[in-house]
Amino acid sequence: MNNRLYAITRDLHLYLGLFLAPFVLVFSVSVFFLVHAWTPGAKGGAERHWTVENVQLPAALDTLAGRARVDALRGVLAQAGVTGEVGFVGHNVKAQRLTIPVMAPGRETVVKIDLAARRAEITERQTGVWDALVALHKAPGPHLVEIRRNWLPMRVWSWFADGTVYLLLFLSLSGIYLWAVLRAERRIGLVLLGAGLMTFLGVAYAVIS
Q: What pLDDT, on a 0 to 100 scale, did the predictor assign at position 2?
């Protein structure tokens, strides 16, 4: 039974690890740019501007809030030819204007809607592949929980991100199991585990204090 469990765990550890490697690579590369706040070509991305007249606004827009308002404005964004994850909806009541930042990996768009004139002014900027990796790393993020994941591709990406975490947990636990079974490797394994733990605690203590 132990030999069979070991063989199954070893195979799962190997093949799931290979499957997970591209996702880990994306998160590893993107965290480098995220920590150092540097993405090649992001600031110099090409911009384009356009205007859409006679925008059809949803009924009772003023009474909507949160996710309901975002969903209602999807039709407006479609009229403007804009797709992506809505960050928030800014409403200037006095000026009767809405400001909607929309993010898609590699692209940032700001849609400004004049409610009285029924006109949408759109500014789109291409941020490049490196910034796209950072956007995927941060998305959907802990902010604005009530409206996040309002774009289907972002919901799908969040499922993959969750799956990556679960598989990493499995790989970690299965790796410890596979190491524990190999008696010859237990001593060096304990040394490395202890070194890793002390390093983590030391860094955490330095950051917290």
A: 77
User: Nearest CA to 71 among 146, 157, 158?
Assistant: 146
Amino acid at 163: G
Neighbours of 152 (CB within 10 A): 10
In a domain, 168, yes or no: yes
Do the Cβ atoms of 121 and 49 come closer than 8 Å?
yes
Q: What is the pTM of this model?
A: 0.77
Last residue of a domain, one of 67, 102, 126: 126
Give the count of domains, the chain. Answer: 2
Identify whether the C-beta of residue 5 lies closer than 8 Å to the C-beta of residue 178. no
Higher-confidence position of 179 and 55: 55
Domain that holds residue 180: 2-38+159-208
Q: What angle do CA 48, 52, 54 make, to 5 degrees?
A: 170
* Res 41 pLDDT > 60: no
What does R_g of the chain's alpha carbons equal in angstroms? 24
- Which residue blocks in 81-185 are alpha helix, DSSP H? 129-138, 152-181
Decide if 171 is inside a domain: yes
